[in-house]
Amino acid sequence: MQTPRGLVFFDLDKTLLNPQHHVDPAVRQALDELRARGYQPVIATGRPAAGIRDVMVASGIDSLVALNGQYVELAGTVVYAQTMPTTVVNQLTAMAAQRHVMLGYYNADGEWLSGMSPAVVAGYAAIAKPTPPVRPRDYQTQPVYMMMAFTENRTDDQVLGAAFPGLSFFRNFDYDIDIIPRNASKVRGIQAVQAAVSQSVPTFAFGDGLNDREMIAYVDHGVAMGNALPAVKAAATYVTTNFDHGGVINGLQHLGLID
Prior knowledge:
Elements: E1 6-10, H1 12-16, H2 25-36, E2 39-44, H3 53-59, E3 64-66, E4 71-74, E5 77-81, H4 86-98, E6 102-106, E7 111-113, H5 118-125, E8 146-150, H6 154-163, E9 167-170, E10 176-181, H7 186-197, E11 203-207, H8 210-218, E12 221-224, H9 230-235, E13 238-239, H10 247-254
Parallel strand pairs: 1-2, 1-11, 2-3, 11-12, 12-13
Antiparallel strand pairs: 3-4, 4-5, 6-7, 6-8, 8-10, 9-10
């Protein structure tokens, strides 16, 4: 691919997507203009790649940092992928079962669940996605890049976090917790994109949640949505409007990336 003028990373939920979890026509137009000006847009999300192909088509974006940096594609080519250690997956699965917490398992090709619960149903409803299949033993034979704990009990965050200091736990919604290795993050995924481009080009990022904070602080120009958490706003170089009030478009205009 031709070296872009810059790399622009977008979180999805409450950032690039509207409240119905779709790409607004005005946002698509802004992305088209961004590409026409030589910039490379990249989705940077906690979601699995298999679950956002429809968003990629709707947005016209062909590159992604998925699973909070565990899986990266640049212009359709896989440039980075990292699995979670099998021992850790086994231990976390056992502890979650003891606490009656259902888990989601994710890799490049798909996702599955350890079981069903009200938190699972609510968690997927929050992103307007159907629940994946229940396959409680597939983690023993399939690679796992990221996990998710479905629970509204905030005590689970503390207990699981204390038991697994080598993992990072990000609660971005009321019903679920993203779980990745502590050395993984959206920044690690961004670095993989930068290495693949092989050129030093300006970097930009838009986000709102805790798993976006490091990304916002890392890039040259970090934009926090108006609805972002205070810690994310504190890490940003600019705070735009809310995601449902033209936040992405206003941020791109402020940066001078589009008219």
